[in-house]
Amino acid sequence: MKAVLQVQNLSVDFETQRGRLQALRDVSFSIDAGEIVGVVGESGCGKSTLIASLMRLLADNAILRSGSALLQDKDLLQISQRDMQALRGRDISVVFQDPMTALNPVISIGQQMIDIQHREQISKAEKRKRVINILEKVGIPDPASRLNAYPHEFSGGMRQRVCIAMALMMRPKLLIADEPTTALDATLEVQVLRLLQELQSEIGCSILFISHHLGVIAELCSKVIVMYAGEVVEYGPVSQIFRSPSHPYTRKLLECDPGRIKERSHVLPSIPGELPDLTQPPPGCIFRLRCDLATEKCLKQIPEAQAVSTDHWAKCHYAESAQ
Amino acid sequence: MSFRYTLAGRLLRDPLAVLGLSIIVLLVLSALFADHLSPHAYAELNIANRFASPSLEHWLGTDNLGRDTLSRVLQGGRIALLVGILSVVIAGGIGLLLGTLAGFGPRWLDNTILFLFDTMRAYPTIILALALATLMPRGLSTVIIVVVLTSFSEYGRVARTQTQSLREHEFIAAERALGASSIRIILRHILPNILGPFFILVAINLPVVITIEAGMSFLGVGVPPGTPSWGSTLKDGFDHIRTTPWLILGGGIPLILVTIGFTFLGEALRDVLDPKLRGER
Amino acid sequence: MNDTLLQLNNLRVTFPVNHGLKGLFTPRHKRSVDAVAGVSLQLNKGETLAIVGESGSGKTTLARALNGLVSIASGEAIFDGHVLHQDPDWSQIRREMAMMFQDPTGSLSPRMTVRSLILEPFAIHSVALNDPDQTAISLLEKAGLSRRFLDRYPHQLSGGQARRVGIARAIALQPKLILADEPTAGLDVSVQGEVLTLMNHLKRDLGLTTIIITHNLNILRHIADRVGVMYLGRLVEVGSVEEIFNTPSHPYTKALLSANPTPDPDATHHRIELIGETPSLLSRPAGCEFHTRCPWAKAQCSRVMPDLETHTNAANLVRCHFPLNELHPGAISRPD
């Protein structure tokens, strides 16, 4: 299948007061058409830098060291800002974590959604029809009458539905969902996940779904990218990775999730130690200092991606035996 | 953390801040040592030699009474700094007190203090100065009172908004939940967090205060006649602008310098204290 | 032999709405909402009670009312002999009842060092210390941090470390009760375990009584003895942690439990999906307040409000006319 997005060797630094912070190092992955790929990782793993790079919304002190990100044929990292602007919302769009700040509070929902179609050569009545149509699809009851409502008149769950409707209205090829359910309650989270699944299969777009919640990834995605301290440490199908993780970090992360531990336990697992300082990354494997399996080899040699099976690899010298 | 990343270190890497600081240091030193630096006594009259052009003897010439302009400008710096610092400290103190009370206290107190602030701000500075000057004897204290009355509300408003945004923070609730009294919370947890933006305001406001003093003296309601203030030097120069333009320069240049100096410093301080730029973890 | 530490009877907390001019034209009963609408429960010494609910369920407000941060509108609350609903001496009560706040870093005063943050409780209550440094170090160590953190500022701490400082502050004065509001919120999965383990150890070593406020069911199983489920400011189910997890009786509890995505791609979800969203506190539904979202609602549910009571087959106290284990033994599968 043809890849919709192909990211290769992406490295991004930030110029900080303490020196150059290597926020992303050699990140490579691809997303096939119609696929939902999850990105999982804890704070400081580089998730937000990855999204910002793909959307060309990096802060001023960011330096693109190397890499490419091909959305079909166009390199998102190289095209002009003007071309990028044309792509945003049309070929690639984003749903953010906080639905309140993502919507303009003083413009009605209907107007905002008509405005984002400004590039379309169709009549206003037709744009309106489209808006009603997509709002109906995301489950807003009686959308025609809600067009004049303002964001604050919607509840949190409804607002996130509106954001999803806005992101999907132009039928993008790639939707980036940045923790879209984190701000929602559990019962609403489930509703929004179901909605995303339905819309995805109807529109046929690919989704890059960022989350720190392993359960959500397992439920929604077909593949998962595991990030740690600015690197992709493991990549592969959800069913394989969650059943038999190959990277020690993935394994530990899964062990930690309290949702997996069904028996009452007074001592819960955790990953001792801290993230390394990315202005001076330690030599060798980035996870070495927190890894039980670390050996001399891990100090001397940065591990390459080791294939575990088709479409499944891990950056660990002992990827095979770690299982 | 090396010196490079301390407040002073980052300040000194900003050329504008260095320029501002140098001007201020120069002014403060010249004010402190005015007596030693002045080539002549500032009150020394020499009617025979009035309106002298700049010369080696009188670098900035003499005024209508034959007094040495440079000596008077140096002495004027003392008055400017004295008025500036005293009134900023008093107005800042009052503003800080009222502002934090308004921001932290109950609704009715907030409304009352806010009403006071709004009333004080409604009067244009110069009008209030003229009104007060007619009621009070001429002198430095009048100048300071006028400046304090017209400027404390601005400090107060800043302190109030800062306090209000802080009181919503969780650490304030956490302190209350520990049993801390309101006074303790204001002194230990609110004040240290609002002093940063407050100092920036002070730095930017100081030249404004000095200009108010000069303005009042220029209008003849400031310092008593004979006192070598920059404003009165400007006024003397203005009266004889056709014959002795150097008098205007003598009174005006230090005013410009002090404004530039404190403005540069204030803006640099704001950049350095901006929490968004404080990234070290 | 009195083991009760905290007793709540029909506790209510209200918040004003429609104040100002608008209030003059609003009927009295619409000028305030009940954030906590009549909560009764009893907490024994040494027990850990978890209050679970989604946003707007009133769980945080309940905790804040117990600590005097918001005032009690009506009902009774008695904490270890102190009558909380009659304007008590909060300073003394706060000494005996410590509170931990949601945001691990944001609940620490930003310009104080860890040392002064930990010594702050002693200073507030004028407790003289022989060796403040030693006290600070031993509290830090109890919370699992080494002394090298003493001179750090909050922004130099990770979320987990800040949370540990919060715990050290909470146990400093040896309180009788700890109110912990979302103790793992904002923490990475890999750190949550550490914090929960620490809290379990402290409970064992210091005999703490704790109320944990959370929306995260995953953490409850490992830390709570009893669970109270809140919906729209009322308790809808109260029971031991095993019974809540194994035999939930209220449909909402069941929905909450099943809405918890587990990181297991093979798990077959018998999910109960709720319809719609939580109603506003301003317009509480008539009858059972959950009937608008309940998959099993019957005609009676929209008319009569059920009480929180025991049912013949349900182990837990439950506010439902038709508790699940009673009438729907097979109701595990999704309703149509």
What's this entry about, in short?
Chain B is mainly alpha-helical and 281 residues long. Chain B contains eleven helices and no strands.
Which SSEs are present, and which pair or pack?
The complex is a heterotrimer of chains A (323), B (281) and C (336).
Chain A: E1 3-16, E2 19-32, E3 36-40, H1 47-55, E4 62-71, E5 74-75, H2 81-87, E6 92-95, H3 99-102, H4 109-115, H5 124-137, H6 143-146, H7 156-168, E7 174-178, H8 186-203, E8 206-211, H9 214-220, E9 223-228, E10 231-237, H10 238-243, H11 248-256, H12 296-300, E11 306-309, E12 312-314
Chain B: H1 7-12, H2 15-32, H3 34-37, H4 69-104, H5 107-122, H6 125-135, H7 140-167, H8 170-178, H9 182-219, H10 230-239, H11 245-273
Helix pairs in contact in B: 2-4, 2-11, 4-5, 4-7, 4-9, 4-11, 5-7, 6-7, 7-9, 9-10, 9-11, 10-11
Chain C: E1 4-16, H1 21-24, E2 32-44, E3 48-52, H2 59-66, E4 74-79, E5 82-83, H3 90-96, E6 97-100, H4 114-124, H5 132-142, H6 159-171, E7 177-181, H7 189-206, E8 209-214, H8 217-220, E9 226-231, E10 234-240, H9 241-246, H10 251-258, E11 309-310, E12 317-318, H11 324-327
Parallel strand pairs in C: 3-8, 3-9, 6-7, 7-8
Antiparallel strand pairs in C: 1-2, 1-4, 4-5, 9-10, 10-12, 11-12
Helix pairs in contact in C: 4-5, 4-6, 6-7
Question: Care to describe what's here?
Answer:
- The complex is a heterotrimer of chains A (323), B (281) and C (336).
- Helix content of chain A is 32%, strand content 25%.
- Chain A is built from 12 helices and 12 strands.
- In chain A, helix 7 (156-168) packs parallel to helix 8 (186-203).
- The model of chain A has no long low-confidence stretch (mean pLDDT 89).
- Chain B has 281 residues and is mostly helical.
- Chain C has 336 residues and is an alpha/beta fold.
- In chain C, 28% of the residues lie in helices and 21% in strands.
- Chain C is built from 11 helices and 12 strands.
- Chain C has an 8-stranded mixed beta sheet with strand order 6-7-8-3-9-10-12-11, with helices on both faces.
- In chain C, helix 4 (114-124) packs across helix 5, helix 4 packs parallel to helix 6 (159-171) and helix 6 (159-171) packs parallel to helix 7 (189-206).
- The N and C termini of chain C lie far apart (51 Å).
- Mean pLDDT of chain C is 88; it is low at 327-336.
- The chains are: A alpha/beta (323), B mainly alpha (281), C alpha/beta (336).
- Chains A and C meet through helix 7, helix 8, helix 9, helix 10 and helix 11 of A and helix 7 and helix 8 of C.
